[in-house]
Design a protein that fits this description.
globular, mainly alpha, Arc Repressor Mutant, subunit A, about 60% helix, about 100 residues, 3-stranded antiparallel β-sheet
């Protein structure tokens, strides 16, 4: 749980994400078990209080930028993804470096 808090704090501090993207990525981190997330778009919409378009756009952004891996899907249904641990570590390192600079 402590790791998830660290990742979520780092996501909040990462400037390339929009406010909605931060919220959605943090929810993916919080829902993950061994970096695997099982959730549907409607579930993510409800958790984050956002629209289908916002969730779908964020997931596409995360996939294109290798923050998540979504297996080839039949149709347009999203049901699970895997978080890229290396990309999450990059976000954490960025956050830690920023903290060091502020000290």
């Amino acid at each position: 749980m402590e790791y998830n808090n660290l990742v979520c704090n780092a996501i909040d501090d990462y400037n390339i994400f929009t406010k909605s993207q931060k919220k959605i990525l943090k929810s993916l981190v919080e829902l993950s078990v061994d970096n695997k997330v099982v959730a549907t778009i409607p579930e993510l919409m409800k958790i984050n209080g956002t629209t289908r378009a916002t969730v779908a756009t964020a997931l596409d952004f995360f996939k294109q930028n290798s923050f998540i891996d979504v297996p080839d899907m039949t149709g347009i249904r999203f049901s699970y993804c895997t978080l890229n641990a290396a990309k999450l570590e990059e976000i954490i390192k960025h956050h830690q470096n920023k903290i060091k600079l502020l000290k």
